[in-house]
Amino acid sequence: MSRDSLGWGNVSTTLAPAEEHAAGPVNRHRWSGLARAADADRVREALLADGRTGVVITGDRGVGKSLVGRTALAGFGPDIYTLQLRSSGPGSATPYGCLAFTLARLPQSSLGSPTAILHGITSLIRDDAAGRPCVILLDNAGALEELSTGVLLNLLQTGTARLIATAQRTSDLPPDFYWLITSGQLAEVRLANLTELETLDVLQTALGHRVSSALASQMHQLVGGSPTLLQAVVSEQIERGNLVLSGSVWTLLDEVVLDGRTGLEDIVRARYARETPVAREVIEVLSCARTMALSRLARMYGAGVIADMEDAGQIIVDRTDRHFVTLGDRYLGDIVRNWLSVERRLELRDKVPGHRPDELGELTVEDLLAYAAWTHDCQALLAPAYALAAAEAAVKLFDPKFALECAGSLSPGDREWAEGQLQKSAAYLQLGLPLQAMAALDDISEEQINALGAAVFAELVAAKADGMSWLEDRSGKVPELIRQARLRLQELSLSELPEPEEELARAGRCLDLCEFNFLSFIGDFEPMMDRLTAAATTEGQGAEGQGTDPVHRLRCAIILMEALCMTGKELDARRLMREIGGQLGEWSNVPRIRENFAWRSFNVLLLAGYWRQSIDMLKDASGRAGHGLHSGSAATDLAVGLAYVYAGRGYMALDPLLAAIAQLEVRSSLHSLRQAYAATAFAYAQTGNPMQATIYLDRARSADGPARFAIRTSAEFCMDMASRWLGDPEARDRLVHTAEGHFRAGRFTLAGICMLGATVNGTAKDFLFLEDIAARRQGPLAELSRTVAEGSRKKDAAIMLAAAELSANLELDAVQARCAALAFDFAQAAGLSGTASTAHTMLERLSESVPALPITPRNKGPLLTERERQIATLAGNGVSNRDIALDIGISVRTVEGHLYQVFTKLGVSSRSDLLGLI
Fold first, then answer.
1. Is the distance from CB of 322 to CB of 245 less than 8 angstroms?
2. CA 623, CA 632: separation in Å to the nearest integer?
3. Is the separation of the CB atoms in 415 and 611 below 8 Å?
4. Is 590 within 8 Å of 574 (Cβ atoms)?
5. pLDDT confidence band for 261 (50 / 70 / 90)
6. Most exposed among 3, 30, 355, 714, judged by the fewest C-beta atoms under 10 Å?
7. What are 344-350's contacts with CB under 8 Å, separation 24+?
8. Contact at 8 Å (CB) between 286 and 327?
9. pLDDT tens for residues 856-915?
10. DSSP alpha helix (H) spans, 175-276
């Protein structure tokens, strides 16, 4: 497929164009330096400690040991004489290999014996140092041969020099050096690989622009935290045009594919050359297979070889029952696989036991996908049964491109063609391409449809309904499609050769679930509530357990959970969510059920006001673990940003939202880009940036298109709220109109959220409507809405302060600021100075997180001067007037005068009343 067919085009600009950035390879030493700035200081401190003759820097390959050593050496300045040495590679035993250049300077008289050479080198270094202290940097000390070891030990023991050495492990060092470590004369500074957070910091510093946490996580997983490899991978992806700057955010266009265009291949070749022939073949096999059961690999190469490679970190054996084996570094497999010819790939595949076509039923999903990927790498076609099974597995693991590749092996004449087109359709929908999904289904002929069994026919109808839901001209035909499908099943049950009852029952459940999903997609919950509730409970199944299917019941319960929340039963929805969560462990093998639950639970928690818990829920919505590392992170970034926006924390929402936009603009995901623009506009409005808010509001309006009901309504709400925040006089009317529509459809939760936003400057009628909606809902957000409506309608400062406390409990900063501002105005109007001061103090605490208040108090000036507030705070805590005067350097009479003003302004009569007001 071409990139155009997959919706990839030019990258649009998210923000104002950033400054020109060098997209070529970046100096790898600079990258390591960004990560190791503090480690050189640690090395110098360890080197200069009393009783020390040197320090050994240890760590894995690519961690930056040599750079840290050189940086530490350079930091000493001209008062220290420095010398840099490097030992030969493994297997080389050249005498005095690291000191060869020094030998060339010795006179002939000093070359007669090892002792003479030792004294000659020592004298030469002392002469070069000219009385200055000497520090030697020895790179790759693990490969040091015996004669060089003797010279260096003499230099250390005579005090001629101190040593900085690098090695992967202290156990790699010559025995004499290892003895110096155990005796404390040599210190060890261990360099760990970068953490995920450090990887993010290095990327942002090196690339000069925002990098999403998802991209940093992806790169960290790929290179294992090595800064050297990180630089190589990033440089290669920039050179390939896969890592691009979208606006102000770096993002990937496609899966990370490594072909060694940059220095990464040199790194791999150097490592590969050090392996034994058997280890190389194991690496080649795993690079082709991606993953393989330990039992198979051990049968091929022996348990000892596998154990040694695991100990060396070359391979990883997971702890599942099958003990799957993968390469320790994924980049190694990608590069090695590109080296192998087709003939070599076929040769290796023939060596692997269990890859015969007649063993399809014995293969696990991992084995199946590995076999399919290996076959495609060999430029061979999969057998039809394998192609279908692999496509189905790839769809289940959310690897749509690989699913399309597998299904592409099928031809219309194959018996598996129709089911293969189903998998194609599902893969296209995962890519956000409903037109292509429908085209795949339309390619199935009427004759092929008639030959399908009841269950597969129902799956075909469900797939068509999924695709048609996204197409405006076909969405309205879905109910009739489902009705006609039910008539077809009825005819099959009455035919002379009816299908088995279980097959018909399974097909009926498939159509029921299809209808529930469609009604949920368009937001029409009320008509299905009774049937959905019955399907989601054991009691709702057929008589004597007929048709009982726990997986079907669980899928219906997940839809019911969201439907309950939308229709005002938030507490019931959360209760059901907890019940489902307790059952998921039993059904972890059901494809995509955990992710479906997590995303619908996110909506439940967000709409019920539990935004922080909704973010935590996203940890279970991690997408899939397919052949690549792309994990659909745009959806996660967008959801996190949306949660922050709903909480009124626009300043926290911008980073994830801009990261989501950067990804969605280059890889559109079922029209959620409009929601991302709208949420970003709302976030900028909350932060008091009307210019950027207006820009993103315009983008949201121009990005209209079909979307799921939850996404569409969220986008519209954010757009209207951003407009209201920017002073659009029509925004309130739009919110009220939307709330009325939700109310008529029984979606009381959404109606309440819209009215809460619409009533920032509402009328008495609006507040009565908000109270009516709240009475039909459950949970703390409903109680907050009712309290806000009552306090606003009655202009009661105490009720508004209670609403502010409810908002604080839910951590809804913008709503809390609104309630505090109204409480302040109501208290001022009623002459309640103490209540007004409490409200004003609350507003001051919120000023950082809510820079642009949803409601501005009529009198924004402080009730107390800074000195009055200072004295009132001390007095409220029991400090006497005399001590206050001594503490802040004024007279007692002045303190008394200030306290009189404080008591008058706050309407209190004693010092104890001040506690809690200030």
1. no
2. 6
3. no
4. no
5. low
6. 3
7. 344/284, 345/288, 345/374, 345/377, 345/378, 346/378, 346/380, 348/281, 348/284, 348/285, 348/288, 349/288, 349/374, 349/375, 349/378
8. yes
9. 776 655 556 667 778 888 888 888 888 888 888 888 888 887 887 777 766 667 777 676
10. 175-182, 196-207, 213-223, 227-240, 264-273
Give residue for tokens 């619409």.
758
pLDDT at 202 over 80: yes
Query: Quick check: 141 and 164 in contact, CB under 8 A?
Result: no
Which residue has tokens 């320090």?
A: 55
Q: What does the alpha-carbon distance between residue 676 and residue 656 come to, in Å, rounded to a whole number?
A: 10
SS3 content of the chain, % helix, strand, coil (to 5): 65, 5, 30
Give the integer Cα–Cα distance in Å for 360 and 369.
11
H or E stretch at 250:
strand 249-252
Tokens 């005067």 belong to which residue?
885
Percent of the chain exceeding pLDDT 70 equals 87
Q: What are phi and psi of 177, to 5 degrees?
A: -70, -40
Report the pLDDT value the prediction gives residue 906, as an integer from 0 to 100: 66
What is the chain's length? 918
Measured CA to CA, the distance from residue 394 to residue 611 in angstroms comes to 33
DSSP string across 254-294: S-------STHHHHHHHHHHTS-HHHHHHHHHHHHHS-EEH
Place of tokens 């529509």: 741
pLDDT digits 0-9 by tens, 129-147: 888 989 988 888 877 888 8
Torsion angle (degrees, nearest 10) of CA 417, 418, 420, 425: 140
Nearest-angstrom CA–CA distance, 172 and 38:
25
882: number of CA atoms within 13 Å, CB side? 0
CA dihedral 297, 300, 301, 303 (to 10 degrees): 60
* Residue 117 vs residues 120, 147, 162, 209: alpha-carbon distances, Å: 5, 10, 19, 55
pTM of the model: 0.75
User: How sure is the predictor about 262, in pLDDT bands with cuts at 50, 70 and 90?
Assistant: low
List of domains in the chain? 28-190 (3.40.50.300), 627-846 (1.25.40.10), 866-914 (1.10.10.10)
CA-to-CA dists, residue 372 to 114, 256, 340, 360, 417, angstroms: 61, 19, 17, 11, 17
d(CA 242, CA 239): 8
Residue 352, number of CB atoms within 10 A of its CB: 20
In Å, how far are 721, 743, 788, 804, 818 from 798, measured between CA atoms? Answer: 27, 29, 11, 10, 14
Task: Tell me if residue 432 falls in helix, strand or coil.
Answer: coil
For the cut 60, the answer to whether the pLDDT of residue 480 exceeds it is: yes
Burial of 526 (0-12, 13-18, 19+ CB in 10 A): middle
Distance of CA 810 to the CA centre of its chain: 24
- Angle (CA) 476-481-484 rounded to 5° is 140
Tokens of 20: 């020109």
- Other beta carbons less than 10 A from residue 13's beta carbon: 13
Buried b (16+ CB within 10 A) or exposed e, 663-685: bbbbbbbbbbbbbbbbbbbbbbb
* pLDDT, tens digit (0-9, with 9 covering 90-100), for 392-430: 988 888 888 899 999 988 898 888 899 999 999 999 988
Supply the pLDDT for residue 260: 59
551-568 pLDDT, tens per residue? 999 999 999 999 999 999
Cβ–Cβ under 8 Å, residues 510 and 462? yes
- C-alpha neighbours within 13 Å on the C-beta side of residue 156: 25
One-letter amino acid at 753 equals I
CB 556 within 8 A of CB 531: no
Phi, psi of 187 (to 5 degrees): -90, 160
